[in-house]
């Protein structure tokens, strides 16, 4: 064998080794040791490219490009079927691709979390789908994966995750643990805090946590969207003057059971969440916030109101002075 041929063979061997190493690196399991189960939904009409991008986004494969090439070469791209799947992170790209043929589809549970819902109410929702509500609440007590969820006062919070769950429709598989469900809910909230939203929050002079706390109070106080920015400004006005917020919604949160009318005794409950007893914001949010309540805090109405009271239809009447407030109360009682 002459030197040229030997050199060519050596180069070819090196190239094969390099290519083999590259293919392995692109197709090996994401998890080298241990595994997690990831819920994956493939909707009708999704192309092989869409599925490849979704798999990469879910960190189930290393490379969407490698997946597309492999599925094309093996004609698996025509066999990928819509469905809901549980994919292990210790599966190779080849195993992931071959499992997405409809046979591995699973049934998922679906819950819709409305605006204003608390951790306790969310726990009741997932309990209806066979999950342990008490375990979910226990985990939520100290779950704060993002810096803005850290406490802003020395007062103890009921749940660190309270208010940092975005009201939306969620799907989870029977195999999802309570910890995985909580992680999914809170991460979705963080995804909704876009750079644009964070920039708007910074302009308010409040922290993310403070904005969420105030928005959660607005969420529970307002029934009509047009009143949300007005109510937000009332609370901001009171905070600026050092006045207690005196929000009935915060007392209802303590009671955990909505009462049509609060008593004087209710407003005297000893709790850091009682904004009749303590000035400033409570130690944490009192429920999930919707987009409109968040925007109300970010863009409050321009007014000098310090008081408001609701009539029997839930519409609020606003006043600049305590005398205005008492007149509004008397007028509502006469109607």
Plain-language structure description:
The chain is mainly alpha-helical and 335 residues long. The protein has 3 domains: 31-106, Dna Ligase, domain 1 (2-Layer Sandwich), CATH 3.30.1490; 109-192, no CATH class; 195-334, no CATH class. It is 45% helix and 8% strand. It has helices at 3-27, 48-57, 64-73, 93-99, 119-127, 133-140, 178-192, 195-204, 208-221, 228-240, 248-255, 291-298, 322-334; strands at residues 37-42, 83-88, 109-112, 169-172, 307-310, 316-319. Strands 1-2 form a two-stranded antiparallel ribbon. A two-stranded antiparallel sheet has the order 3-4. The protein has a two-stranded antiparallel ribbon with strand order 5-6. Helix 9 (208-221) crosses helix 12 and helix 10 crosses helix 12. Residues 17-27 have low confidence and may be disordered.
Q: How confident is the prediction overall: mean pLDDT?
A: 85
Uncertain segments are 17-27
Main sheet properties: 2 strands, antiparallel
- From the spread of the alpha carbons, the general shape counts as elongated
Rg, rounded, reads 27 Å
Structure summary:
By secondary structure, the protein is mainly alpha-helical. The protein has helices at residues 3-27, 48-57, 64-73, 93-99, 119-127, 133-140, 178-192, 195-204, 208-221, 228-240, 248-255, 291-298, 322-334; strands at residues 37-42, 83-88, 109-112, 169-172, 307-310, 316-319.
